[in-house]
Amino acid sequence: FILEDSVYDISFFDDSVLVINYNNLGDSVFEVSSQKLIHYVSKDIIELTNNVQLKNYNGDLLKTNQLFWNIETNNILSLDTVLIKTSDKVINGCGFYSDDNFENYKIFNIWIFFF
Fold first, then answer.
1. Virtual torsion, Cα 104, 106, 111, 114, nearest 10 deg
2. Structure pTM?
C-alpha cells in the first residue's frame, strides 16, 4: 500500500490521538482515535494503529488495530480484523473499505450478530 522509498515527509504521533474530520460546512463527519498515528505527507495518507476506533455522526462505531485513511480520495481501509457496531447489529470481519464518512462500506469475511 505504501512504499517506504517513495515517502519522504512523515509526521509521527505516538500517544493517544484523536482526529475529528469536518465537511466543508463545518459539520463533524467522523472522529477517530488510536494510540499511534503516522501521516505520510507526500501521499496524503494517514495510518492509525493500536486500538483504532472510528465513530461517524450516526453513532456507528468501527474498531480495528490498523486503519489507513487516504485524505485525497476520501477513503478508509483496513486489512486487519474489524468490528462494527450499529444501532441494531454487530458485524465482525477481516478487511474493510469505505468512503470516509463511513456510510458506504464493504466488509470482507463477515459474520453478523443482530440484537
1. 10
2. 0.82
